[in-house]
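Forum > Structural Biology > Help requests

Title: Can anyone predict the 3D structure of VOC family protein?

Hi all, first post here. I have the sequence for VOC family protein but no way to get a structure on my laptop. I'd be grateful if someone could post the structure tokens.
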Amino acid sequence: MFKIFRGIEGSVIMNIRSLGYAFIESKDPSEWRVFGTEVLGMMEVPGVGDENVFLKIDERPFRFAIVPGAENRLKLLGLELYDENDFVKAIQELEASGTSYTRGSRADLKMRGVLDLVRFNDPAGNTLELYHGADLDYAKFISPLGISGFETGDFGSSGFGHAVLPAENLDETHTFYKNVLGFGDSDYMHFKFSDDPDEPGLALKFMHVNNPRHHSVALFGGESLAGCIHLMLEVKTIDEVGECLQRVIEREIPITSTLGRHTNDNMLSFYMMTPGDFPLEFGCEGLQMDWDNYTPTKTTLPSHWGHKFAL
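Reply #1:
Sure, ran it for you. Structure tokens for VOC family protein below:
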């Protein structure tokens, strides 16, 4: 099912398997405790540090880690590699591309429950971590809201969902994700926000890694003060999406997009504002792809219906 991509001077490059975790900086992590458990249905679990909030959605010990800070923003994303051998190759690829990185400290590894990691910035300034050897504690996910489960693949192999990141230098950043990190293209989309024929609009590039999700990361050709355009979580049923929407309405949480169904990944979803000052997409029924029999597309219509965005 999976393709092998070629990197610097034709070498086989990184075997990234999934989008593993998100670290989110918060002025008040307790806001995420309430939002994560009482709105999204995530499960709070013990973590490292008294002020940190760790949220679980599957067999993995956590997927979102909220840490105290001076701003509300996405701090970094973790990308999971297959094993130690692929981790060593990934470091070699970073070095060959001239990308500066730092090794994770013992405290970093303990907090994340991984064997090793490196941290670096992409050309747009988004912070990423490459890691391997993640803990799998097999502790049962029990949603405080009765959600049957989140779609993350067998033993979490497809990751927690997807992330859309800002990249004003879109072409340079896209090239880095393809030629250094080994992402494959899924889809290209160009948004206009008015009927003005002279409006340049903004572009989105959707990319996948070695799992069946239509995209694990997308790059948006604009900026975000919160360091994130949006994160996405996927549940198993339409009812669970609707029930979450009802909770959002009852709590008067700002809805940044109405319910709708996307064209490129078929996701039925809506978007809400988070305590991180960026939106979160909550959906179901996303496509599972066969990458050996797929050609990247250019989508001219973002949704079959719905998804009226509040900009």
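The CA atoms of residues 271 and 307 lie 8 Å apart. Confidence is low (pLDDT under 50) at residues 1-12.
Shout if anything looks off.
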